[in-house]
Amino acid sequence: MSLFSLCVIDSSALAAPAATYVVRSGDYLTGIAARVGANVNDLLKLNNLKITSVIHPGDTLLVPANATAPAAKAPTKTPAAKTPAKTTPEAKAAAPAGAVYVVKRNDSLSRIATKHGVKLSALLKANKMTVKSVIMPGSKLVLPAGAVVAVTTTTTPTTAPSTTAPSTTSPTTTTPATAAPATTTPTTVAPADQPQSITTLLSYLQAQVGKPYQFNAEGPDAFDCSGLVTAAYRQIKISLPHQSLVQSTYGKAVDWKTEPIKAGDLVFMYSSASPGVIGHVGVAVDSKTWIQSARTGTPVRFSAMPSLEKIQAVRRIVQQ
């Protein structure tokens, strides 16, 4: 479920969009801006988004006309002729104990609760979530006691073979984007101050948004703060200990009060349980935003960077 903020676009600052970009699995907003050669602020304004907005595979974004590289375009398909399916609805049945629901695109927590005949509070309690928790397509939710599922019988429709119009691509156009995970390096070169390893790191972190906090966990289904850092850096073959205080001794120290925090930097704070001792860590997305797994009941999420006074250390693991 995407979060949009209403704003007025200054037509003098942004020209008419030149192309569109179809979001791929693992994409995140700053990475897309780098891929199409556009300023991330221009991309956000053009699409009425914030840096913390959630995007999903298959979403279409407008690309600023001043982008320096072409955007990927979706392939054109000829719709297949189908015979409508005949479905006979039957009475709903009680869901078995421990039944799991797989989140679909455009789902919301309240919609899922209504669909299965349970209170939203019961669904949240069963999954240790809050009304502000973010869910992503493919995430799994435990259905609480009393949930029901629809039982139907369906006559399989006959489908005529579909045809796909051949794609014609000029030498400067990237391969059409699909919802499948990307398996090759993007054809657009990232900015000089953002190595490919940082793009890979942020892509992994984006994919973890919405997963629950669990003490001493480092994935794949739950994380604590230092476990999220350990798992993320493992994706770029860098081994970090699963402990925030020890992580604060790795890499190069950054004076965050005199120089900008960069994507991939580790940002440390004191523990609320032990003031004066580093006990929390997150990963910078840019100088104003980080991603973290903060506490029980709060899933992995993007949030505003802590104030300079609350930050206790910044370490740069990948030199930029």
Structure, briefly:
The chain has 320 residues and is of the alpha+beta class.
Layout of helices and strands, plus pairs?
Blueprint: E1 19-22, H1 29-36, H2 40-46, E2 60-63, E3 77-78, E4 86-89, E5 93-94, E6 100-102, H3 109-115, H4 120-126, E7 140-142, E8 148-149, E9 152-155, E10 163-164, H5 196-208, H6 225-234, H7 244-247, E11 252-253, E12 266-270, E13 278-284, E14 289-292, E15 301-304, E16 311-316
Antiparallel strand pairs: 1-2, 3-10, 4-9, 5-8, 6-7, 11-16, 12-13, 12-16, 13-14, 14-15
Helix pairs in contact: 3-4
Series of secondary-structure elements, N-terminal to C-terminal: EHHEEEEEHHEEEEHHHEEEEEE
Largest sheet entry: 6 strands, antiparallel
Q: How far is the first residue's CA from the last residue's CA?
A: 34 Å
Categorize the overall geometry: globular
Number of helices: 7
CATH superfamily of the largest domain: endopeptidase domain like (from Nostoc punctiforme)
By CATH, the topology of the largest domain is endopeptidase fold (from Nostoc punctiforme)
List low-pLDDT spans: 1-17, 162-190
- Percent strand: 15-25%
Cα-based radius of gyration, to the nearest Å: 22 Å
Give the overall pLDDT as a whole number. 77
* Lateral strand order in the biggest sheet: 11-16-12-13-14-15
| Total number of strands | 16
CATH architecture classification of the largest domain? Alpha-Beta Complex
**Count of the separate structural domains:** 3
Percent of residues in helices comes to: 10-25%
The helix-and-strand class reads: alpha+beta
- CATH class category label of the largest domain: Alpha Beta
